[in-house]
Specification:
The complex is a heterodimer of chains A (327) and B (254). With 327 residues, chain A is mainly alpha-helical. Chain A has eleven helices and two strands. Chain B has a domain of 151 residues. The chains are: A mainly alpha (327), B mainly alpha (254). The interface between A and B is large, with 89 and 89 residues.
Chain lengths: 327, 254
Amino acid sequence: MHAPDGFLNAGTALATGAISVGTVGLALRQAKHYLLDRQIPLAGITAAFVFAAQMFNFPVAAGTTGHLLGGALAAILLGPHMGAVVVTVVVLVQALVFADGGLTALGYNILNMAVIPAYGGYAVFRLFRRLLPDTSGGAVGAAGLAAWVSVVLSAMAFSIEWLFGATAPVSFTRVFAAMVGFHVLIGIGEGVISALTVGVVLASRPDLVVGAADLDRRQLEDRRRTRTPTFLIAGLLAALFAASVVSQFAFDDPDGLERVAEDTGIVVSAEDHALSDSIFADYATAGIENEAVSLAVAGVAGTLIVLAVGWGLFLGPRKRPGRPAAV
Amino acid sequence: MGAGHAHALYVHEHSVVHRLAPESKLVAAVLFIVGVAITPREALWAFGLYAAVLGVVLAVARVPLRFFLVRLLAILPFIAFAFLIPFIASGERVEVLWFDVSREGVWGAWNILAKGTLGATTSIILAATTEVPKLVQGLGVLRVPAVLVSIAAFMIRYLELIAEELGRMRMAMASRGYDPRWLGETKPIAAAAGAMFVRSYERGERVHSAMLARGYTGVMPVLGRSPAEWGDWLVAMTIPLVGLAIAVTALVVT
């Protein structure tokens, strides 16, 4: 998801840049008391870990591979603020040093790959921690679901940015269906690997998992062994469910509709677009073929993202009791 | 270790471009890319001129063509997406070669292709002519928050080490016959990732103790760097000035 320069228009690059600078600034402020003391080398080495983890190719099916994005994993292991900061550094260095992602695209790349997965993923993690049993197994399951949702949220965010800043007239519904559909599947891999990783860390150094700091020794030992196939089947079912919900909105072919409209002579006058003077200028309007559906999908997805990120931001600073001091 | 890593991206030469202060090169690169990004896509000549400017810089910096092309492969996934656009975009259809594609889609694809390639080329030149630690120092001079800069410095310092550790783990798994084909067989990969996180974290703790023992107060001392001189800025800024002049002309003409 490392977008190159010029992928979205200048306004979108600036707007997402402002959002990213704001949120990362906030994350830095929140993480400051934690960072100044002893954590800078730790954060740096963890950033190197996230970078290396992104090189971790895992098989998806018969020869095709995916790789970890790691935003939700970092947030669960380090807490949402530190997670967001660490992944921001990774994205920044990838753009500057490795030419992976454009320099003027940093605004939306940081938003999509660091801010949204870290905060959104952490919020989802806390939500499932509440729903699942308060044990090590519950935390592992919550981590998997959070990582999976974080990838989907990220894909949704990218589609919404496309709605505002498209540089080609590919309709929002198409981009949304393709991006979300693809990432609903890719996300299963992210979820499985993240969950198993959190499980391994919980087994050896439970004090390093900030997201599970409230578990005591007894809860940590109470660990139902979930076998990977069970997890996979659950993930696939969840994916199918999500895909069917998405398809309700997105898979009706707007081009087909338009053609029918032309053929039957019900051509709506194209020039007086209700939105042509608003923020949806230029291509965004060309990109919207079925306004009501597009805006509904974008609205629902946008609300979900803002809710999740906002909740993640709110969840972070509270200090939970019972966190064993890291040695 | 750091040196070994830097060598993969850095071309050891002694050109004018290499000698410029890192912060001036950073600002120049960002401004040049901003110019490219705001150029209207119809101004084909402007993109030709940008490519020529970058070609000259590549030649002056003596970056080998092969090295440059290999690095450019990083943007392939999005190039693939760009080639899809003409087929899935809406609007007026035109025939290009044998394909029936959208005219607006072709322009959109060209836009992403041209700007993405020029942007990546600029980043590659920046990394090829500036050692990574200096690049990070440059960010510090430009008032990027110190915390981010220090994290980036540590990350770059330990990246190669951790990547090598990862490589050893994979080799150990492969030599024991582990060859996963399906997602259901990935548990050992995750176990390795988890072990790697714990190892990285514990290494971080050790490094921090060692630094405290040597008098670390939370700020890294800056060793032997001189601030950018006027000459550096003058030379570095010629490139983005040319770029912005092209961009403004293109904006006015089209």
